Amino acid sequence: MTSSSQTDKKTPVVLIAGAGLGGLMLGMVLEKAGIEYCIFERALKVKPLGAAMVLGPTILPVFEQLGLMEEFNKIAVPVVSTDIYNDNMKVLGSVKMNNIIETSGFDNMIFARPRLYEMMLKQIPEHKILMGKRVLKMQEKDDQVFIHCSDNTSYNGDIVGGLMEHTHYLSEYVQVTGR
């Protein structure tokens, strides 16, 4: 049995500015939660760029909750130690990472950033990423948000994510609903 307050709640529509790692992560979480969203990317084509990255116990639980750890482990290897060098490339010391999994449940994992990007991009249905949509402006009016793009198109939703000065809309929704 559902209460009237539960049935009256409308699922929000989230507009995400940017299909970088942050935008894709937000899209993956919203996809899993069944919340409607659309990602607006200014580039005409996705170009996964970058070098090596390390993720660890602060973010890997999210990949586990999304059911992506097995796939993530295919592109990453554990960091067993980190060497520290001076400006003459002389080793000053080394930090061993062999017991981090015992204390946190996860290793620090190193991988090629483009492979992570490609893995994350596969989790987002193609129709939910609009390419060539550079967001120029955001407006709020009558409990709706509007984004205006450089190609003279506009879109409306309930929450905007991805624009640093406007991400509070998403955090306020999460605090209010507990999602």
Automatic annotation (TrEMBL):
Pfam families, per the entry: FAD_binding_3
Give start and end of each FAD-binding domain: 14-145
Membrane-spanning intervals of the chain: 12-30
Q: What's in the keyword line of the UniProt record?
A: FAD, Flavoprotein, Membrane, Oxidoreductase, Transmembrane, Transmembrane helix
Q: Which SUPFAM superfamilies match?
A: FAD/NAD(P)-binding domain (SSF51905)
What is the protein name for this chain? FAD-binding domain-containing protein
- The organism named in the record is Mortierella polycephala
Q: Which GO terms describe its molecular function?
A: FAD binding; monooxygenase activity
InterPro entries (alphabetical):
FAD-bd, FAD/NAD-bd_sf, FAD_mOase_fung
The similarity annotation says: Belongs to the paxM FAD-dependent monooxygenase family.
PANTHER family (alphabetical): FAD-BINDING DOMAIN-CONTAINING PROTEIN-RELATED, FAD-DEPENDENT MONOOXYGENASE ASQG-RELATED
Its domain of life?
Answer: Eukaryota
